[in-house]
Automatic annotation (TrEMBL):
NCBIfam families named among the record's database cross-references: ccmB
Organism: Rhizobium esperanzae
Name of this protein: Heme exporter protein B
Subcellular compartments: Cell inner membrane
Function per UniProt: Required for the export of heme to the periplasm for the biogenesis of c-type cytochromes.
One CC-aspect GO term: plasma membrane
C-alpha cells in the first residue's frame, strides 16, 4: 500500500503539471473576482470565504478523470481487480495519494488567496481548516465519477458533471462553518462537525462505490 501511495503520488504530480496546475487554476479563479465585483474591500472580505471555497472545489476537480486512467491504459487495472488486496482498500489509497498531490497544495495556498480577498485572520484560519477537513470528501466523491468514466475516451467532462452536484453539500457546510467562525453568535462547531461527518461518510461510500463501478466496467 505504501508503494502504491508513492507511485500514485508521483503520477499525480507529473500528470498535466499536477499540483502546480491546480494551484494556478485556483489562483486564477480567485484573482478575477475583484475585477468582476469592483474594488470594494468590505464586499471582498464578506464574500471571500465563499469564493476561496468555490475556487478550491473547481480546482480539486482537475485531474479526477486521470485517477484510474493510467491503470486502464497500461492494463494494470485488470491486475487490481484480481489481486488479493481488497479493491476498496486500493481505491482508498489512490484517493489519499490524489488528495495529497492535488488538494493539499490548495489548502496550503488558501491563506495567501485569503489575503488577496481582504479576509481577516479568523476567516483565513477557518477557511483553511474547513478546506483541510472537507476537501477529502471531494476526492472520495470524484473517485466514483472517475471509475464510471474510466472506460470512456473523453470522460473528463463527464466526471465533472457527475461529481459537481454531489459536492454541493460539502461546499455549503464548508462555507457555513467559515462564516460561523467569523460572525458571532453563529456557532462554528455544528456545521464543522457535519462537514467532518460528510468526509467520513464519503470515505466509506466513495471507495466502495468506485470499486463496484470498476468491476462493472471490467465486466
Amino acid at each position: 500500500m505504501t508503494a502504491l501511495f508513492l507511485r500514485d503520488l508521483k503520477l499525480s504530480i507529473r500528470a498535466g503539471g499536477g499540483a502546480l496546475i491546480g494551484v494556478l487554476f485556483f489562483l486564477t479563479i480567485v484573482a478575477v473576482i475583484p475585477f468582476g465585483v469592483g474594488p470594494d474591500l468590505k464586499l471582498l472580505s464578506r464574500i471571500g470565504p465563499a469564493i476561496v471555497w468555490i475556487g478550491a472545489l473547481l480546482a480539486a476537480l482537475l485531474g479526477l478523470d486521470r485517477l484510474f486512467q493510467a491503470e486502464r491504459d497500461d492494463g494494470s487495472l485488470d491486475l487490481m481487480l484480481i489481486q488479493e488486496t481488497p479493491l476498496v482498500l486500493t481505491v482508498l489509497v489512490k484517493c489519499f495519494a490524489h488528495w495529497t498531490a492535488t488538494s493539499l497544495p490548495l489548502v496550503i495556498a488558501s491563506p495567501l488567496l485569503g489575503l488577496f480577498m481582504n479576509m481577516d485572520e479568523t476567516a483565513i484560519g477557518a477557511t483553511m481548516l474547513t478546506l483541510l477537513v472537507g476537501s477529502p470528501a471531494i476526492t472520495f466523491i470524484g473517485a466514483v465519477g472517475a471509475a464510471v468514466a474510466v472506460a470512456l475516451p473523453r470522460g473528463g467532462l463527464l466526471v465533472s458533471i457527475l461529481v459537481l452536484p454531489l459536492t454541493i453539500p460539502v461546499l455549503i457546510f464548508g462555507v457555513s462553518a467559515t462564516y460561523a467562525a467569523v460572525e458571532d453568535p453563529a456557532p462554528f462547531l455544528p456545521p464543522f462537525l457535519i462537514l467532518i461527518a460528510q468526509t467520513l461518510f464519503f470515505a466509506v461510500i466513495g471507495p466502495a462505490a468506485a470499486a463496484l463501478a470498476l468491476r462493472n466496467t471490467a465486466d
